[in-house]
Amino acid sequence: MEKVALLKCTDYDVELIEQTLRQGFELLGGDSFLRRLIPKNSKVLLKPNLLSMEEKGSPVITHYAVFEAVVRIIQEYSKDIVFGDSPGFGDSRKVAERSGLMEVANRYGVVFNDFKEAVQVTLENSILCKSWNIAKAPYEADVVITLPKLKTHAMAFYTGAVKNQFGCVPGVQKATWHTRMPDSNNFSKMLLDVNTLVNTKFAILDGIIAMEGNGPRSGTPKKMDTIIMGECLTAVDSVAVRLIGYNNVLEIPFLKEASDSKWGAVLPEDIDVLGEKMESMKCKDFILSRKGGNFHFINPSVNNFLTSMLAPNPVLIEEKCIGCKRCNEVCPEKPKVISFVRRGDKLIPKWDYSKCIRCFCCQELCPEGAIETKYKTLGKILKLK
């Protein structure tokens, strides 16, 4: 039985968050638990979600106040603390500076790593992927603690503790993985493997302000007043997705793969939720990005008819588009599936859906939130959304 601490925290006040986190650690075993989690002289890497260049306090990224509260506690057990991420787009140092995390790190002597240096390694006990090129800092850390945001995700339905470590794949290599894994099941197995590879020990999920709707970047902030903590990443994510409205946790592709491969606890009966009661913390009106179904990450070469009829498409909100062409820059497919047509004084994207793998990198990293996902009529009839 995996233990998960479900905590109520109503504000991004550092003192309040620190108090809440300490309550969570007490529920999980207190000082003895932390000493086991962080053995003496351990190098600890904190892995926030720094998806893209965002303003300080943005709901897209891990909040600087959560980061500071975590640092305050962890520094009591380790003097060797590093933090870093590899954003989907943009320079990681500039992203860390704008987010407010760098300023906190400098005050507490936490070292920044840009995840640009990588190592070639083999994962012998992999579910799927044995050969890896992975960021050196998280791979060589003794303890990796992930600090994700609770958000919807057009490709993965939900992003949290498990998916946050995809940021340990350096820079543009993420696009390569999208192309190599044009199947939701395999992509999910890859996410589990990367967490095994970097030995992610603990998760602290920031859901004080979550994101609903068109996540992970262009959705709507949603006050959830929630922090979720635990050693088992899939257990943390299982609690989170139930809070936002997924009654069947196996609707989430990577949780289903984790359950099938026995990678970690997923089903409610295998998770002991400590602290707040689940029913009191559930959000009744949370707007999900996607609901159920297996049509997720599509391989166009397998069945073009099913792809076109059942899979969601990236769709442009034309009035929001500024013609920056970032969607084309981040598209992992070669040749690109996006071309451009002129509308007045700007060029707007046009997708070749017969070649699109529905990775939604374009939607995820659009700086203006001008791309959303939509199902065609048949997909709606089958209640895939």
Indicate the topology:
Elements (H helix, E strand, L loop, with lengths): L1 E7 L5 H15 L1 H8 L5 E6 L15 H11 L5 E5 L7 H8 L1 H8 L2 E3 L4 E5 L8 E5 H5 L2 E5 L1 E5 L3 E3 L13 H8 L3 H14 L2 E13 L7 E11 L2 H12 L8 H8 L10 E5 L2 H4 L22 H7 L2 E4 L9 H5 L7 E6 L2 E6 L9 H5 L5 E4 L2 H5 L4
Parallel strand pairs: 1-12, 2-3, 2-7, 3-4, 7-10, 8-10
Antiparallel strand pairs: 1-11, 5-6, 8-9, 10-11, 13-16, 14-15
Helix pairs in contact: 1-2, 1-3, 3-5, 8-10
Provide key terms for this protein.
alpha/beta; Rossmann fold; Alpha-Beta Plaits; 2 domains; two-stranded antiparallel sheet; 15 helices; 16 strands
Structure description:
The protein has 385 residues and is an alpha/beta fold. It has 2 domains: 2-281, Rossmann fold (3-Layer(aba) Sandwich); 304-381, Alpha-Beta Plaits. The chain contains 15 helices and 16 strands. Strands 1, 2, 3, 4, 7, 8, 9, 10, 11 and 12 form a 10-stranded mixed β-sheet that branches. A two-stranded antiparallel ribbon has the order 5-6. The chain has a two-stranded antiparallel sheet with strand order 13-16. The longest helix has 15 residues, at 14-28. The radius of gyration is 20 Å and the shape is globular.
Gist of the model:
The protein has 15 helices and 16 strands. It has helices at 14-28, 30-37, 64-74, 92-99, 101-108, 136-140, 173-180, 184-197, 233-244, 253-260, 278-281, 304-310, 326-330, 361-365, 377-381; strands at residues 2-8, 43-48, 80-84, 111-113, 118-122, 131-135, 143-147, 149-153, 157-159, 200-212, 220-230, 271-275, 313-316, 338-343, 346-351, 371-374.
